[in-house]
Amino acid sequence: MLQLTTTSNGTSRVGSRTGPLVVGIGGTMRPGSSTEQAVRAVLSAAEQAGARTHLLGATALQLPLYLPGETRRTAAARQFVNAVRIADGIVIGSPAYHGGISGLVKNALDYIEDLRDAPRPYLHGRAVGCLVTARGSQAATTLTSLRAVVHALRGWPTPLGVAVNTENVTFAADGTTTDSHISSQLSLMGEQIVEFALARSTAA
Ligand SMILES: Cc1cc2nc3c(=O)[nH]c(=O)nc-3n(C[C@H](O)[C@H](O)[C@H](O)COP(=O)(O)O)c2cc1C
């Protein structure tokens, strides 16, 4: 996984390795967050498929509540926006909180408004894997709303979205899970993100 360096003019360096950059966004502040582990598993598959990756887990998502009209940004907010700006593919993971996306994740996504006038506005031209964890069947409802957010941000949700019922599926610290079906879905999502990024770069 890459360490992004934000320079004084607000741009980010990602090192000299090649391959599309896939940025993972998501998690909860709960120690051992299954959402963050699931995002890690997708990034790991993306790396296997030839991507560079960077994780913006729950700690990196602790940003002040997005305030329209406020142009000052904390260092964490600048790093978040810059990582999204340079990403070639993205995976977003959220827990289902009361039938919707968590406030932590949605607040961070609101900062993508800063990319309204970017050369690639919002999530334009990027494949976005959408994954949700929930202790039950409401994962599907939340997955639908996460996809709607990605569409509103002009991203391309991957054909495969993943809903993980954490009542039945547990993650190890390295992102592996006891459920082979979920493991293969998370891998496929990583592959689809990279496949799209490579196809777009060839077409450009
Ligand atoms: C405040 C809160 C609200 C939740 N609401 C729902 C819900 O509406 N539906 C559901 O299936 N699970 C709900 N859950 C369960 C979480 O979605 C589930 O435990 C998730 O996997 C937690 O992710 P984590 O392991 O990354 O912390 C809720 C949990 C919390 C703490």
Automatic annotation (TrEMBL):
InterPro entries: Flavoprotein-like_sf, FMN_Rdtase-like_dom, NAD(P)H-dep_reductase. Residues 1-15 have a biased composition (Polar residues). GO terms for molecular function: FMN binding; oxidoreductase activity. Residues 1-23 are annotated as: Disordered. One of its GO terms (cellular component) is cytosol. It holds the Pfam family FMN_red. Residues 22-165 form the NADPH-dependent FMN reductase-like domain. PANTHER family: CHROMATE REDUCTASE, NAD(P)H-DEPENDENT FMN REDUCTASE LOT6. This is NADPH-dependent FMN reductase.
